[in-house]
Every structure is written in structure tokens, then in C-alpha cells.
Design brief:
alpha/beta; Rossmann fold; five-stranded parallel beta sheet; binds oxalic acid; about 15% strand
């Protein structure tokens, strides 16, 4: 097969090309070239690919996404139905997502932010002991990321519930299906979003949802910026409905310098780094799938276009 690596995101795309080529000695891997597309590629490995990809590589049969979320790819003009879209499954991201969530969960539940403020005043003041029953975690999404996040929180004995379309069970947590959203929210104090961005989930993190959470709730959004209605978050923070938020993904990235999130002490901002797909694991996974399809074998991680994930 001929494989083109086409990502506008990677700072060193040649390193990826070399790693993929080394893992795929029976195939040809090359870097996308704006000037000279070959027109012969069978597959592309992409993250934020150039707009001309489909026009200039009309023979593409497979699109391997370097990330888990395919929302941006699904909206690319020219993505034909005959291209099989394959997403990353974990690739080292799930454990990082769990670390990210634990960091902010522990920071809130163990008052570490308040101790940092006390240190700034050289103040020695132990605060109340933790009451884990007051720190109920609710994870939206029970997939590769959601399940790992939920299990990591449960391993530290936080009461954890998971909400998903199917109500897929996650060991050590309480599961809620689509119809169980109200009950899931009513028991949740720390809400973690790891849903894919789809027509059903866009704008799901909004005022009416925040109002159903336990009082003094905290939001961790590590999925997509468009899940969140920014003005509803700010209003709910002002009203004391929410105590704070950790946000990793934004409707516009990079987050513009004048965006209110940057300067709000109740909001922690990170630049879409909660879970990075690690090169070794990613190359191994994608190369394995390319070898499999070249041999006519089935692969996992194929995106269901109707579900949009
Ligand atoms: P998966 O496809 O494995 O899991 C998606 C989960 O969401 C499933 O449990 C699915 O339910 C559930 N779901 C989908 N639609 C709905 C809906 N309408 N209502 C309720 N539940 C729904 O995806 P991953 O776990 O691998 O990744 C999830 C997302 O995390 C990605 O799409 C991406 O946006 C984000 N991400 C962000 C990263 C970052 O660095 N910030 C890194 C990696 C991922 P069911 O089980 O029933 O199908
Ligand atoms: C992903 C991401 O979807 O990093 O993999 O956001």
C-alpha cells in the first residue's frame, strides 16, 4: 500500500514518516507534499489534514486518525463514504486522561488549591478532613477514555458513576444509560466529560445540565470545546452553582488571548494536552491495522458514520 502522512499539527512530521516506514517495511510511507501529491495513496495517517487531501488523493480507501476524536474529520468537505475512517484506540492517551482528572479531583477534594493560597500568606491552617461521600464523580462517556478515568477515580475510593448511550458497565462504578441522565447528574459533584463530539452531544455542558448537579459542583472537560456553552459556565460560576472548572479543549484553539477563561481564577486552562497519542504506541497500532487490512483481515476502531464516533 502507499500511505501518506498528512498532519498540520505535528512539529516533526518526518519523524512520524520514518517511524511508520520502519514499522511498515512492505509498504511505502511518504510525507504529504502540497506541491506534489502523488494521487496514488491508498491510506492516509492524519490529524488536522490539509484541505486538499481528498481532491488530490482520490484513491484513498483508509483514513487513520492520530487521535480518538473524529469530529473534525467528519466535517471535512470531500470525505467520501467509501473511505473507512479509523480512530486511535487508547495509544497511551487513556492513562494520561486519568492522571489529568485525578489531578484536578484531588486538588479540589483535598483543598490543595486552598493550601497553595495559604502558603502564599505563610499561613498554617489545616482544613477539614476529606469526606469521600461528598466527592461523587460522574463520568460522561464509558469508552476507552471514560472507562479508564472512571476506574482510576474508583481505585482511590471516590464514588463513581458513568453515563453512556448504552449504559455500558464499568467495573467498580455505577452505570447509567441514556435515559438515566437525570439520576446520574443528581448524584454527581465532579462532572468529567469524555464524550465524543456529535450532533447529540454538542452543547451538552449547558446551564440546564449544570443545574441538575449536586451543589458546589466542579467541571472537568477533557473532550471537546464545543461540548461546552462557555457563557453558561461563566454564569453558573458567578451564581455559585459551580465552584470551578478544569478545561483542556476549546471551541477555538489556541484559546484567544482575550478569552475570559484565561483570567478567571476559578478556571484552570490547559492547551489540549490531557491525553496525547504517544508516537511509539500510535505507530505500532496504526501499522498493525495497515498490515491487517492489506492482508484482508478485520480491524477494530472503525468509526460508525451514523453514530459519528
Ligand atoms: P469511545 O468511542 O471509546 O467512547 C465514547 C463513549 O461515549 C461511549 O461510551 C459512548 O457510548 C458514549 N457516547 C457517545 N455518544 C453518546 C451520547 N449521545 N450520549 C451518551 N453517551 C454517548 O471514545 P474515547 O473514549 O476513545 O474518546 C472519547 C473522546 O475523548 C474523543 O472523542 C475525544 O473527543 C476526547 N479525547 C480528548 C483528548 C484530549 O487530549 N483532550 C484525548 C483523547 C480523547 P456507548 O458506549 O454506548 O457507545
Ligand atoms: C483526541 C485528542 O481526540 O487528542 O485524541 O483530542
Amino acid at each position: 500500500m502507499e500511505i501518506v502522512f498528512a498532519s498540520r499539527h505535528e512539529s516533526n512530521p518526518l519523524e512520524w514518516v520514518r517511524a511508520l516506514q520502519a514499522a511498515l517495511p512492505d509498504h511505502r510511507v511518504r510525507l504529504w507534499d502540497d506541491e506534489e501529491p502523488s494521487g496514488r495513496a491508498d491510506a492516509a495517517v492524519v490529524w488536522a489534514p490539509p484541505a486538499g487531501l481528498f481532491d488530490r488523493e482520490p484513491g484513498l480507501k483508509y483514513l487513520f486518525n492520530l487521535g480518538a476524536g473524529v469530529d473534525a474529520l467528519l466535517h471535512m468537505p470531500g470525505l467520501s463514504d467509501r473511505i473507512t475512517l479509523v480512530r486511535m484506540e487508547d495509544g497511551g492517551m487513556a492513562v494520561q486522561m486519568a492522571e489529568y482528572v485525578l489531578h484536578y479531583l484531588i486538588r479540589e477534594s483535598r483543598d490543595l488549591g486552598r493550601y497553595a493560597a495559604q502558603q502564599a500568606q505563610a499561613r498554617w491552617q489545616p482544613l477539614a478532613d476529606i469526606d469521600r461521600s461528598a466527592w461523587t464523580v460522574g463520568v460522561m462517556g464509558a469508552g476507552v477514555m471514560g472507562a479508564r478515568v472512571a476506574q482510576a477515580c474508583a481505585a482511590l475510593e471516590y464514588p463513581v458513576a458513568v453515563w453512556s448511550r448504552s449504559g455500558r458497565p464499568v467495573a467498580g462504578t455505577e452505570s447509567f444509560g441514556r435515559d438515566g441522565l437525570a439520576d446520574f447528574l443528581a448524584r454527581t459533584r465532579v462532572l468529567v466529560n469524555v464524550l465524543p463530539l456529535t450532533g447529540d452531544t454538542r452543547g451538552i455542558l449547558c446551564r440546564s445540565l449544570f443545574q441538575q448537579l449536586r451543589p458546589d459542583a466542579y467541571l472537568i472537560n477533557i473532550a471537546r470545546g464545543d461540548h461546552l456553552v462557555a457563557e453558561d459556565l461563566l454564569a453558573c460560576l458567578d451564581e455559585g452553582r459551580l465552584r470551578g472548572a478544569a478545561l483542556d479543549a476549546f471551541s477555538q484553539e489556541p484559546l484567544p488571548p482575550d478569552h475570559p477563561f484565561w483570567h478567571d481564577a476559578r478556571i484552570q486552562v490547559t492547551p489540549h494536552v490531557a491525553g496525547a497519542s504517544l508516537m511509539d504506541l500510535t505507530v505500532r497500532q496504526i501499522a498493525g491495522k495497515i498490515d491487517a487490512v492489506a492482508q484482508g483481515q478485520p480491524i477494530t476502531g472503525i468509526v460508525d458514520r451514523a453514530r459519528q464516533y
